[in-house]
Amino acid sequence: MSVSPILGHAYLGAIVEGIGAFLLVLAVCAVALNPRARREWAPLAIGLTLGLDVMIFGPLTGSAVNPARWFGPALIGNDFGGTWPYLVGPVVGAIAAALLYRFVIAGGQYALGPEPPTGPDEVVENVADDVGTAARPRRR
Predict the structure, then answer these.
(1) Burial 91-107 (b: 16+ CB within 10 A, else e)
(2) In contact, 96 and 22? CB cutoff 8 Å
(3) Residues 61, 19: Cα–Cα separation, whole Å
(4) Contact in structure between 92 and 67 (CB atoms under 8 Å)
(5) What is the pLDDT of residues 50-61, one digit of tens each?
(6) Are 10 and 84 in contact, with CB atoms under 8 Å apart?
(7) Which of 88, 111, 126, 131 is the most buried (most CB within 10 A)?
(8) Nearest one of 57, 59, 73 to 22, comparing CA atoms
(9) CA dist 2 → 8, 53, 58, 61 (Å)
(10) Secondary structure, 3-state, the chain
(11) Residues whose CB is less than 8 angstroms from the CB of residue 74 and which lie 6 or more positions away in sequence, other chains included
(12) Which fold has domain 10-115?
């Protein structure tokens, strides 16, 4: 596998691979690892994300989005030219997605621990707080 001449340079291939890995890791974090997500939808969401990655980025770089996925065809085809976009891009994209999910999207969700606060007493308190907030007059 090698970066398409459409891109012009290998660093653009690394960016494409990074974006693909970013989308895939973000989908995995959001639907499979999130304690509040509906996990029965995880396989569909992850599969659709991977399919989107392959359809959009496949013609440009082969859409490996995983260094191990790139290594197999490179080993069998004995084609190790342009290695760094397939190693650096997905790693940087995956780390960026994990950090974005953890610190921006999930944010305070993990402040109390990995499990959401859903004990019986906490549910009643949360509902009472929500009703109180909704009933409060708005400032104009």
Answers:
(1) bbbbebbbeebeeeebe
(2) yes
(3) 12
(4) no
(5) 999 999 998 888
(6) yes
(7) 88
(8) 57
(9) 12, 17, 11, 6
(10) CCCCCCCCCHHHHHHHHHHHHHHHHHHHHHHHHCCCCCHHHHHHHHHHHHHHHHHHHHHHHCCCCCHHHHHHHHHHHCCCCCCHHHHHHHHHHHHHHHHHHHHHHCHHHHCCCCCCCCCHHHHHHHHHHHHHHHHCCCCC
(11) 1, 80, 83, 86
(12) Glycerol uptake facilitator protein (1.20.1080)
For the chain, how big is the Rg over CA atoms in Å?
A: 21
Contact present, 22 and 55 (Cβ < 8 Å): no
Task: Write down the pLDDT at residue 126.
Answer: 64
d(CA 86, CA 3): 9
Give the model confidence (pLDDT) of 18-43 as tens digits.
Answer: 999 999 999 999 998 887 778 888 89
Which of 99, 101, 60, 69 is closest to 87 using CA atoms? 69
Summarised one tens digit per residue, pLDDT across range 103-137 is 888 876 665 555 555 566 666 666 666 666 656 66
- Residue ranges covered by each domain of the chain: 10-115
